Amino acid sequence: MLNYRVNFAKQILGVPFTVGSVEIVRARDPLRALRAAELRFARQHGVEDWRERADRADIASAGGQG
Known about the structure:
Number of helices: 1
Largest sheet: 3 strands, antiparallel
Order of helices and strands: EEHE
CATH class: Alpha Beta
Strand content: over 45%
Oligomer: single chain
CATH topology: Ubiquitin-like (UB roll)
CATH architecture: Roll
């Protein structure tokens, strides 16, 4: 399993500004990590859908295998 970092950004005039990031430890695959990060980001910001605070979510492998 890998660790992932998902960065959330809001686009203003076509330029992405990072509004937050979430670390996911030990996800089976990138899609599961992305979904978990979206849910965690929404909970952290007190909204039902992460898209209320950000326009895009970009995932990157943070390495680590177990």
